[in-house]
Amino acid sequence: MGESARSVSGKHRSPASLLLLPIVRALISCGMPSDEKQAAKRAAQLRDEIRKHDRLYYEKSAPIISDREYDRLYKELVDLEAQFPDLGAPDSPTQRVGGKPLKAFAQIEHRVPMLSLDNTYSEDEVARFYARITRLLPDEKIPVVIEPKVDGVAVSLLYENGWLRHAATRGDGSLGDDITQNAKTIRSIPERLRSAAPGIFEVRGEVYMDKRGFEKLNEERREAGLPLFANPRNAAAGSLKHLDPGIVAKRPLGIVFYGTGAVEDVDLEKHSALFPLLKKLGLPHSERWWLADSVEGILNAIHELDGLRHDFPYQTDGAVVKVDAFEQRERLGFTAKSPRWAIAYKYEAERVETRLRDILVQVGRTGILTPVAVLDPVVVSGSTVGRATLHNEDEIKRKDIRIGDTVVIEKAGEVIPAVVEVVKSKRPRHAVPFDFFKHIHGKCPVCGGPIRRDPQFVAWRCENVQCPAQTTRRVEFLAARGALDIESVGGIVADKLVERGLAREPLDLFELKTEQLAKLNLGTAEAPRMLGEKNAAKAVHAIERARTLPLARWLFALAIPEIGKTTATQLARFHDSIESVADSQLLRDVLDYHEKREHKSGSCRTKEIADRLIKAGFAKRSKSKDKNGIVTEVGPVVAQSILNFFASASGRKILQRLKQLEIQPKSEKVSGKKVAALALAGKTFVLTGTLPSMTREEATGKIEALGGHVSGSVSKKTDYVLAGAEPGSKIGKAKQLGIRILDEMEFRQMLAR
Fold it and tell me: Which residue among 18, 142, 214, 348 has its CA within the 20 to 30 Å range from the CA of 329?
């Protein structure tokens, strides 16, 4: 991001560093007031002027001074408050840089519940919604307001006598996390309302990350080797959940207010009257809104918004339609989870045509070769797209995708742009069927090593385990947040470590010294850019911390084929160490059991193995009629893959290297009886949608900690589906199979029990 102090809220950079001025009194000779009375007068002038420019910038998007001029005013105020500490004011613009890190988030009860809206992608459903409310209120004119659906994080702010009392996330609708300290760092959120403020004013809105600021933030993270945010909404949610307000202050966050909760001393009869009130109080609101009293008018507004929304500074994914009159809303009432007087229409993912110029083949951390379409750049959903995933060779064949074709691409939410179909009527005459093997000349495009077709993954794989592309990806994977969470190692840092010969394999990270990392050139010989002492020290500290992480994290981080997070957690419950996993009798028993079952040999021996696995807690009786049938914690394919990995030369080398480095991940082993006694033992969950107050990783961790499993797809073996906002097709399948669907509140109650 840039150098401007305005960055705290959205489009520029935080001035936190300006607070660390070495000798502010030396600035008196440069024209600063020499006595406190003059200083107080000047400080008041500066605060008023800075607030005026903030309003022009954030509320009207019409700045009248440059960033440099703004920063000069801001710096002058910082210097004054440093020279005369008694001039400090809690509502000063300089106080927006965050306080001390929080230990945890307290809970706040919403005075009025925060309900979610029913969603639809169908204009017909919008028409049915309006027909429904006109049937419920016959012979009445029912005007509705149409406004943008901001793709952000729902929050509620409570002002008492004009001052911000607290801010909270939606949470489960009744209770939310107290994010007051983080909200105060967002410059477009006033700590004190303008004009004659109501005694109680609870206002609801969406915190978003500015689109341009998001791109800059990701670019900075890419350069620093940090994991990239998937999209602005995820980045905003992650920022609000950060325990350090100082970090939040540096994120380009803004807010759009759209409604109220508990209010006193406010005489509002219509939603449309809220917008001028918000403006009067200095609270940012929707850029555009429409009034309509017919289906035609509603759909016209939705279409007009679709043409404008890509120019907004925040992401929008739809339009919200609300009954305007509050009295009519009261009579329409609510269902169990949402109001009858509102609906959210979500735009379909935008599809556009462009030319496919070439197909590149990338090499992943496990050696799998992935084709990527190189496109004529085209704007999709507000951003320019030049590449799209093609998944694998079979997908290319199925869709008959050829170089030179005109293709239809789609980009929805955080999904990587994908080629949906080919416009065959526009196919050039010279276009020929794509031959994956010939295109890369039958060898790895990175190292030139041999490749083979892996039927299990429907993909080609590079067989050279020393392939630089695989090394880089494995280093990134080992250091990723879900693995060993090694700060500052990833992206360009991982590339350069491999390129400079400092990391020939992931475990080389544990022999790096601060001095080596500090001198790591992330740029070029012509334009060097060193990682630096501070970043290097952070990385080395995180590397040392990773030594003590649990066995499950290490099993996942080593990128063993077939081991995901869930399998790693399961294995860690039944083994003392990585060595015991490598030489696991349980895994060999799984293979023996399934082999004997397949060949129908040695029924006594089969029963003996089954009993042993059940006694260890690594299996349970099958519900089938077969009395000797069991269901094992992992299947034979996974068991074979793990044993093969550690029996290979590279697997043996990893075990030897871990021993040399004195890395002994602590075990989470529990007895078979204890596993069976865990509250969710044997239960399978599937997660879908966005949960209000926890990430999927957090929910998965809670399930696995109680002995449950998390699966990626719904089947007859699924016990529960945990559903958040905007669930996918898994909900339909769960209903079809009669599987119990939980919301987050029910899930938390289950955990509490």
Answer: 348
Cα of 112 vs its chain's centroid, Å: 28
Query: How many CB atoms are closer than 10 A to CB 38?
Result: 13
Q: Domains in the chain and their CATH numbers?
A: 5-95 (1.10.287.610), 108-346 (3.30.470.30), 350-462 (2.40.50.140), 468-546 (1.10.150.20), 553-667 (1.10.150.20), 678-752 (3.40.50.10190)
CA-to-CA dists, residue 455 to 380, 392, 403, 460, 605, angstroms: 34, 12, 25, 8, 32
Output b/e per residue, 712-742; b: 16+ Cβ within 10 A: eebeeebebbbbbeebeebbebbeeeebebe
Single-letter amino acid, residue 554: W
Residue from 149, 216, 411, 538 carrying the catalytic annotation = 149
Dihedral in degrees, nearest 10, Cα atoms 347, 350, 351, 353? 140
On whether the pTM is more than 0.70, the answer is no
Q: What is the 3-state secondary structure (H, E, C) of 605-672?
A: HHHHHHHHHHHCCCEEECCCCCCCCEEECCCHHHHHHHHHHHHCHHHHHHHHHHHHCCCCCCCCCCCH
**Strand 720-723 versus strand 630-632 pairing type:** unpaired
In contact, 477 and 557? CB cutoff 8 Å: yes
Q: How many CA atoms within 13 Å lie on the side-chain side of 653?
A: 10
Mean pLDDT, residues 281-299 taken together: 93
Report DSSP state, residue 309.
G
Q: Which of 108, 103, 110 is nearest to 245 (CA)?
A: 103
670-695 b/e (C-beta count within 10 Å ≥ 16 → b): bebeebeebebeebbbbbbbbbbbbe
Measure the CA–CA gap between 351 and 408, rounded to whole angstroms: 6
How far is residue 577's CA from residue 573's CA, in Å, rounded to a whole number? 10
According to DSSP, residue 189 is labeled: S
| Predicted confidence (pLDDT) per residue in 691-739, tens digit | 777 777 778 878 877 778 787 778 888 899 998 876 767 788 888 888 9
Q: Is 515 exposed, middle or buried (0-12, 13-18, 19+ CB in 10 A)?
A: exposed
- Is 322 labeled as catalytic in the residue annotation? no
129-133, 151-155, 188-192, 496-500: which range is least confident on average?
496-500
Structure tokens at 393: 């060779």
